[in-house]
Amino acid sequence: MARLFLLLAAFSGFTSVALGAFAAHGLRQQLSPEYLAVFQTGVQYQQLHTLTLLVVALLLQRQPDRLLTLSGGFFVAGMLLFSGSLYALTLTGIGKLGIITPLGGVAFMLGWLLLGVAAWRQR
Length: 123
Description:
Layout: H1 2-27, H2 33-62, H3 66-92, H4 101-121
Helix pairs in contact: 1-2, 2-3, 3-4
Membrane topology: Multi-pass membrane protein
Keywords: Membrane, Signal, Transmembrane, Transmembrane helix
InterPro entries: DUF423 (IPR006696)
């Protein structure tokens, strides 16, 4: 699972930089300042949790752990649901996509909670 999380972190890191550049250069004239800020929030959360996923992958290489694996899975789900819904909302203008965003936030929180529990149980 560590290898998969490393690959996903690399892909997510690449796409978050590309999306950030796309927003800064390609969307500035297309989106309202409010929607541009929402898009950038998605990029920031994706970048932060990409680094977190990288840490989880490195920890899993050191010592496989079910809670760490679940934590990484929740971080991936959070990036898809939280950041993905913000990207989709701003690019399509479909406001109802915003109901998905909190699910991603919950996934992030569960990922952090499980990471903490895994750390607590470390020897």
